[in-house]
Amino acid sequence: MATKNYVPKCCRGDDAICTGSVELKTLGIEEKMTLLAEEGVDIGDNGESTRKAGSSNLSFLVKSIRAAKPKYVKVDITHKETGTRYESYEDLDSDDIGHGIITEIAGAMLNGYKVGNG
């Protein structure tokens, strides 16, 4: 399966607080569409996606994170100020900065990686 090298927002730009990237297996189309369908996301005739009323953003985020978790191949992130190294999903999962990275990656996998970030 193809992999992508993802650079989280905290590692980009002049004000980046971290350096590095995360190598990820791509989320397959069937996995992605199943997750979206289970959350009541529909695609209209105009190609726009809509979610059913009353669906939980938090529930969707948790499911997205779970779907992304087995896709982590390699984590290589270092916090500039403290020198803290994140070398696995578990390292990210044990830290507030890591939580932001995990959440960002879950969204990126569902929305598609941005040009220049893969």
Entry summary:
The chain has 118 residues and is α+β, with helices and mostly antiparallel strands. 36% of the residues lie in helices and 24% in strands.
Question: What labels describe this entry?
Answer:
two-stranded antiparallel sheet, disordered C terminus, 4 helices, 4-stranded antiparallel beta sheet, alpha+beta, about 120 residues, elongated
How would you describe what is shown here?
With 118 residues, the protein is α+β, with helices and mostly antiparallel strands. Helices cover 36% and strands 24% of the residues. The protein has helices at residues 29-38, 57-68, 89-93, 96-111; strands at residues 3-6, 18-25, 41-43, 49-51, 72-79, 85-86. Strands 1-2-5-6 form a four-stranded antiparallel sheet. Strands 3-4 form a two-stranded antiparallel sheet. Helix 2 packs across helix 4.
Q: What's the total helix number?
A: 4
Question: How does the helix and strand content classify structurally?
Answer: alpha+beta
Looking across the biggest beta sheet, what order are the strands in? 1-2-5-6
Reported for the largest beta sheet, the result is:
4 strands, antiparallel
Radius of gyration from CA coordinates: 15 Å
Which regions are unreliable across 5 or more consecutive residues at pLDDT < 50?
114-118
Strand content: 15-25%
Mean pLDDT: 86
Kindly state the number of beta strands: 6
What are the SSEs and their pairings?
Elements: E1 3-6, E2 18-25, H1 29-38, E3 41-43, E4 49-51, H2 57-68, E5 72-79, E6 85-86, H3 89-93, H4 96-111
Antiparallel strand pairs: 1-2, 2-5, 3-4, 5-6
